[in-house]
Automatic annotation (TrEMBL), chain A:
Gene Ontology molecular function: double-stranded DNA 3'-5' DNA exonuclease activity
Organism whose genome encodes this protein: Xiphophorus maculatus
A Pfam family the protein falls into: Rad9
Record carries keyword Glycoprotein: no
The UniProt record lists the keyword Transport: no
Reactions performed catalytically: Exonucleolytic cleavage in the 3'- to 5'-direction to yield nucleoside 5'-phosphates
Annotated protein name in UniProt: Cell cycle checkpoint control protein
UniProt similarity note: Belongs to the rad9 family.
Function: Component of the 9-1-1 cell-cycle checkpoint response complex that plays a major role in DNA repair. The 9-1-1 complex is recruited to DNA lesion upon damage by the RAD17-replication factor C (RFC) clamp loader complex. Acts then as a sliding clamp platform on DNA for several proteins involved in long-patch base excision repair (LP-BER).
Residue spans of biased composition, Acidic residues class: 333-344
TrEMBL record, chain B:
Claim: Transferase is one of the keywords in the record: no
Principal subcellular localisation of the protein: nucleus
Quaternary structure and partners: Component of the toroidal 9-1-1 (RAD9-RAD1-HUS1) complex, composed of RAD9A, RAD1 and HUS1. The 9-1-1 complex associates with LIG1, POLB, FEN1, RAD17, HDAC1, RPA1 and RPA2. The 9-1-1 complex associates with the RAD17-RFC complex. RAD1 interacts with POLB, FEN1, HUS1, HUS1B, RAD9A and RAD9B. Interacts with DNAJC7. Interacts with RHNO1; interaction is direct.
Localization annotation: Nucleus
Family named by the database record: Belongs to the rad1 family.
Keywords: DNA damage, DNA repair, Nucleus
Recorded superkingdom: Eukaryota
This protein's name: Cell cycle checkpoint protein RAD1
Gene Ontology terms: cellular component: checkpoint clamp complex
Gene Ontology BP, a term: DNA repair
Function noted in UniProt: Component of the 9-1-1 cell-cycle checkpoint response complex that plays a major role in DNA repair. The 9-1-1 complex is recruited to DNA lesion upon damage by the RAD17-replication factor C (RFC) clamp loader complex. Acts then as a sliding clamp platform on DNA for several proteins involved in long-patch base excision repair (LP-BER).
Any Pfam family hit: Rad1
């Protein structure tokens, strides 16, 4: 395998690596026919990111036919190749990526000005395939904005903030910090921003959903988008369904797929056992906390999604009872489960119980043709016990 | 502003008197060799040499020539004393060490000889501070016997490019390997860290390479912890010469320009790790 990146694209590649480091600790590298894929996933499998660099991104992209190679390596080591982005821009003329399968090494060679050659031989491990199953096109809500708009929005939230909630109506998007604990709500500082549809390049809302996802990972994407100036597209559906953030241009595509908090606090029970792609049973959302929650929201002065909006229009896939669109959030923990409950006819097989890897798409959505790839997990890295019963 | 608070008779008691209008011309260069607490000061007619050693296998020297000082008076051929370098630097920066234009600290350094403290008179904006630092029994600096006649390989590089390499060095590597050769890769810095190895190659034809004199291929490894402090000297220098002798002893010499554009030198010696086979 021989890939050569020249000029400004070296910095783009470096930026992508740094961006992926916000997601997980390992970088999965897979040279494909349609380009070089760099992926990362977090330990709880609730965030996944993939950058696909088309052959045209490279000044030379030579993959032996039939190469079925994928590996993973510590992302810190790849980051050290692209350590100083400012220097990359000024001094690196080209970056050559080569594979030495005999020695299990991936070599990054940076040809710099003044006759300086930097060679990094990084060891890797073979890895299984890592791909999230998601279908952007089936999402109810689609937006596209210049990265500046989103960066200016998230700058208002402290870097320590874990999650944000995004709520949309026909003409507006609200971004608010998410406070986990109901009791904390009265003590915490609540920040809410409202963006009008005209701040976006594209704003299409089919359902007035409100989703909550991890801000840190979102910032990871913005890091990349801002430096490349590419507009960010956002696709989401009902809460519990992942939000997909994308940047694309003619030679690259980056997708960040982040899990969203589900309304369904029974999700753990329904996830347990059986195939990962069974549809969820209808859930009960009317919890005792909801009234208290609504009361809290009613006292807020600013007109927001909590007060006015009518219930979302009924959708074929929308199984929830008509109700004001604020629901209690239950954080459903991400767990990898034991294979004890697997179908006895199948060979013992550990599967992801991922919040979004093929398990939470609305049953009627058009799945893209990617097969559900399962990961062989030899040891669960989750510390949480699975739900009893 | 030169200090004239001392009476003539007191001056005659000092074996060393050194005056500097700008104390930064001394403190900046001393910062470049601060890797240990204590330093040995050797004053001769040529000027001041300050030596710091580590583990008996690394030595850093800063040379400030006599003509850098506004006054440099020596009553004996050689005056040697040892002081705590950190304390000395704190005193030299006692007025805050700000780099505001026009605000410079004047220094008068005086030493009465063995058993006496080192006395510093520091003045800025009319305010005078007197510091007396206890001197210690000087340890004999190692003489590595590095002579130019024994030099096998020598290169002189512009500091700018080496600065980049040193700032990116993989710190998980215990050693820094330096290869110098009349053939490819000419001049190579290598690290062997947790995730793999990295090589920085400088071509002999590079415009950053001012001098390239390599007669034999030599590869030597040096402990990263011993060489890391040299990056401080590299940071303030404009050129660096890298030499190895037949024993693999490394000599790094840095050309430093002070605030007034005068030239000073900093030198690092480092012993190699055990003999290594060429990889």
């Amino acid at each position: 395998m021989q890939c050569v990146v020249t000029g400004g694209n070296v910095k783009v590649l470096g930026k992508a690596v740094h961006s992926l480091s916000r997601i997980g600790d390992e970088l999965y590298v897979e040279p494909q026919e349609d380009g070089l894929a760099l992926r990362s996933v977090n330990s709880s499998r609730s965030a996944y990111a993939c950058f696909l660099f088309a052959p045209l991104f490279f000044s030379r992209y030579a993959i032996p036919t039939g190469l079925n190679f994928r590996c993973k390596m510590a992302i810190k080591s790849v980051q050290s190749v692209f350590k100083s982005l400012a220097t990359l821009e000024k001094t690196v003329e080209k970056c050559h990526i080569g594979l030495d399968e005999q020695k299990d090494r991936l070599t990054f060679t940076l040809h710099c000005k003044h006759g300086l050659l930097k060679t990094h031989n990084l060891s890797y491990q073979d890895s299984e395939s890592l791909e999230a199953v998601f279908d952007k096109n089936s999402c109810a809500n689609v937006f596209r904005a210049q990265p500046r708009v989103l960066v200016d929005t998230v700058v208002h939230f402290p870097t320590s903030l874990e999650e944000v909630t995004v709520t949309v109506s026909d003409e507006r998007m609200w971004v608010r910090n998410h406070v986990e604990d109901e009791a904390e709500r009265s003590k915490a500082m609540l920040t809410e921003l409202c963006l009008a549809a005209d701040e976006f390049d594209y704003f299409a809302v089919k359902a007035h959903y409100s989703i909550t996802f991890c801000l840190k990972e979102f910032r990871g994407l913005l890091l990349f988008a801002e430096s490349t100036g590419l507009p960010v597209s956002m696709y989401f559906d009902e809460p519990g369904s992942p939000v997909v953030l994308s940047v694309t241009d003619s030679v690259l595509e980056g997708n960040f797929v982040l899990a969203t908090l589900s309304d369904n606090h029974d999700l753990q029970k329904s996830n347990r056992g059986g195939d990962a792609d069974q549809p969820h049973p209808p859930d009960d959302f009317m919890s005792d906390d909801m009234d208290a929650y609504l009361i809290a929201m009613d006292t807020s002065a600013a007109p927001g999604p909590s007060t006015a909006d009518p219930p979302p229009p009924s959708l074929a896939t929308f199984r929830k009872p008509p109700a004001p669109n604020y629901r209690t959030r239950t954080h459903s923990e991400e767990e990898e489960e034991d294979d004890g409950e697997e179908d006895p006819e199948r060979p013992p097989d550990k599967k992801f119980r991922s919040l979004f890897f093929g398990s939470v798409l609305p049953p009627s959505s058009q799945m893209n043709t990617q097969p559900l790839t399962t990961q062989e997990v030899l040891a669960s890295d989750s510390e949480d016990e699975t739900e009893a019963d | 502003m030169p200090l004239s608070t001392q009476s003539q008779s007191q001056d005659e008691q000092y074996v060393l008197v050194a005056n500097l209008d700008n104390a930064r011309n001394l403190s900046n260069i001393l910062k470049a060799i601060t890797c240990k607490d204590h330093a040995v000061f050797t004053a001769t007619a040529n000027g001041l040499k300050v030596t710091v050693e580590d583990c008996k296998c690394m030595q850093a020297n800063a040379f400030i020539q006599a003509d850098i000082f506004q006054e440099f008076t020596l009553k004996e051929d050689m005056v040697i004393f040892q002081v705590n370098l950190t304390v000395l630097l704190d005193c030299l920066n006692i007025f805050g060490g700000s780099t505001a234009a026009g605000a410079s600290t004047a220094l008068r350094m005086c030493y009465m000889g063995y058993g006496h403290p080192l006395t510093l008179f520091l003045e800025e904006g009319g305010v005078v501070t007197v510091c007396k630092i206890n001197t210690q029994e000087p340890e004999e600096p190692i003489d590595f016997e590095f002579s130019s006649s024994n030099v096998t390989n020598k290169v002189i590089l512009q500091s700018e490019s080496l600065k980049e390499a040193f700032s990116e060095l993989d710190m998980t590597s215990e050693v820094l390997q330096i290869t110098m050769s009349p053939s490819q890769p000419y001049f190579r810095l290598s690290t062997f860290g947790n995730s793999g190895n990295a090589h920085y190659d400088y071509s002999k034809d590079s415009d950053m390479m001012e001098l390239f004199q390599c007669s034999t291929t030599q590869t030597n490894r040096y402990k990263m912890s011993l060489l890391k402090p040299s990056t401080k000297a590299l940071a303030i220098s404009c050129k660096v010469s890298v030499r190895t002798d037949s024993r693999g002893l490394l000599s790094l010499q840095y050309l430093v320009r002070n605030d007034d554009g005068q030239i000073c030198f900093v030198e690092y010696f480092c012993c190699p790790d055990e003999e290594v086979e060429e990889e």
